[in-house]
Write a structure and sequence with these properties.
Elements: H1 2-16, E1 34-40, E2 44-49, E3 55-61, E4 66-70, E5 76-83, E6 92-97, E7 100-106, E8 115-120
Antiparallel strand pairs: 1-4, 1-6, 2-3, 2-5, 5-8, 6-7
């Protein structure tokens, strides 16, 4: 009789266990980091570090220029502009992270129009 009661109690306990408790925890997903470089200028030389850490540049760019990539923590960010030779004006550079302004700089000399920023992505 004792064995029968013990068997019934064990059966009830096993049936009442929540099967969800035995699941492994969901893996933590990494938050996506979309980095966007933007410039504000009429005609300038732009230089930047791409997602592979390589220096890139382009001449005769304007405010329509932008560059985007999926960043990783620890990525070095660099963006700069200068007026094209013979042109004068103030310029600016901006880095956005997931469409939120991360950092920006404005030129303080209309002759060179140079603006430059560096940062490290957290």
């Amino acid at each position: 009789m004792k064995n029968l009661i013990s068997l019934l109690v064990c059966s009830v306990l096993l049936i009442s266990c929540n099967k969800e408790d035995n699941k492994l925890p969901e893996p933590v997903t990494q938050i996506q980091k979309i980095v966007k470089f933007k410039i504000d200028c009429d005609d300038c030389f732009v230089f930047w570090i791409d997602e592979n850490g390589e220096q890139k540049n382009a001449s005769n760019q304007n405010s329509s220029w932008e560059y985007s990539f999926e960043g990783q923590s620890g990525d070095y960010l660099e963006l700069g502009v200068m007026n094209t030779q013979g042109l004068y004006g103030y310029n600016s550079v901006s880095v956005y992270l997931n469409d939120n302004l991360l950092i920006s700089d404005n030129s303080n000399c209309a002759i060179t129009g140079s603006a430059f920023i560096t940062d490290t992505l957290e």
